[in-house]
């Protein structure tokens, strides 16, 4: 409802105030109903997010194993193949980083603690050719 700023007297102002009060109560009740109806939806999406986090951890672990077995460090002295493998694994790693960020956003949205991914940290160090100790020293 649009409230006119032109006044035609105290009766009209009182009527407008009553309408605003009734509309406010209606809006408040409607928001409570919507909130209540979303409780089950939020619970469902929270469960889905937790499942996605666990699946991501498994996928990330498999990716790290594949990186160690087939990545640039596993090609021996074939530098060209090592560079090719590095590019391939770097692109895949970036996709994992994007997915991790999406999961963190979902965890924040649903009030969940943000998951930590030790394999992600190890992979990042491995991608830069550093052991964990060297990676820590380089970050200082």
Structure overview:
This protein has helices at 10-70, 79-109, 118-127, 132-138. It is mainly α. It is rod-shaped and about 90 Å long. The model is unreliable at 131-140 (pLDDT under 50).
SSE layout and pairing:
Elements: H1 10-70, H2 79-109, H3 118-127, H4 132-138
Summary of the model, kept short:
With 140 residues, this protein is mostly helical. The chain has four helices and no strands.
Helical stretch tally? 4
In whole angstroms, the N-to-C terminal distance is 61 Å
> SS-based structural class?
mainly alpha
Main β-sheet description: none
The residue ranges in which pLDDT falls below 50 over 5 or more consecutive positions are 131-140
Shape: rod-shaped
Q: Bin the strand percentage.
A: under 5%
What are the secondary-structure elements, in order, as H or E?
A: HHHH
What is the C-alpha radius of gyration, as a whole number of Å?
28 Å
Multimeric organization = single chain
Instruction: Estimate the helix proportion, in percent.
Output: over 70%
Question: Which structural traits does this protein have?
Answer:
140 residues, mainly alpha, 4 helices, rod-shaped, disordered C terminus
